[in-house]
Amino acid sequence: MITCKGRTELLKMERATWIVQQALAECVAACRPGVTTEEIDRIAADGIRKRGGRAAFPGYRGYPKTICASVNDEVVHGIPSAKRKLRDGDIVGLDLGAVVDGYFGDAARTAIVGEVPADVAVLVRDTWRALVAGVSAVRVGGRVGDIGAAVEAVAKEQGLGVVREYVGHGIGTALHEEPQVPNYGPAGKGETIREGMTLAIEPMFNLGTARVRLASDGWTVRTADGKPSAHFEHTVVATASGPVVLGFGRYSAEGLVTGVPGETEYPVPAAPQRGEPAATTGEARV
Length: 286
Ligand code: MF3
Ligand code: CO
What we know:
It is a single chain. With 286 residues, this protein is of the alpha+beta class. Helices cover 24% and strands 23% of the residues. The strands form 4 sheets. The chain has a 5-stranded antiparallel beta sheet. A hairpin with a 6-residue loop joins strand 7 and strand 8. The longest helix is centred in the N-terminal third of the chain and has 23 residues, at 7-29. The relative contact order is 0.18. The chain binds 2-amino-4-trifluoromethylsulfanyl-butyric acid (MF3) and cobalt (II) ion. Cobalt (II) ion is lined by residues 106, 169, 200, 202, 233. 2-amino-4-trifluoromethylsulfanyl-butyric acid is lined by residues 57, 60-61, 63, 68, 77, 95, 97, 106, 200, 202, 233.
């Protein structure tokens, strides 16, 4: 069943996603050579707890950690480990969820560690651009396929592989609700988007083949050809005045949307410099 959320529910989701975005920003800032993904996991857990949230992933289908940290050819669901030290030239997808008062928020960003080859920087930037395109395609009365088509168009334009086995999802009182939100079209197909629908949109793009393999740990998803993969995710609500990305204070206590997000409000990150995160998602506005 697809549920549409009202103001009270959306405020809880805004709070949960805000906590996720704040903690995620702390994690991205910590992604430097020599830091382990286990240490990043700890930063995420502390970041959620100190802001009054509960981490959503521990225990979810038996998942053991707070964050998913997927390095280089790992697509999603990499399990943090004290043995996994980040190195100069790595990219790492960080995926985090939190719960406030029974309502979930879910977001992901890919961080660049040190300096990466130009094609990898482009992969990260275009996966981010695809998230912006997907969010921008959310329209009351439109279809879920419009989102996937917008995401897929960015990959096609750049010759990147779109992961098909893992998809975005509805979100609310559960981490994963209906409908599924694939990162491919066709436009004009799929569920009709209604006011108050909350969707986690999460493009996963590969530099090489779209094909992936599940590791023997039962979680880690890797590209079939060993080439790098990037992942970004926002929790979004469809409103009459357009899509609102939760977690950045746009959904206020009055239920007012303070702006309709467009590409200008979510600038494409400049080519990453040494030591800088891959993308900034506007923490300054919170
Ligand atoms: N954040 C992931 C998603 O977007 C879920 C991670 S699965 C977990 O669907 F087990 F790690 F929680
Ligand atoms: Co998700």
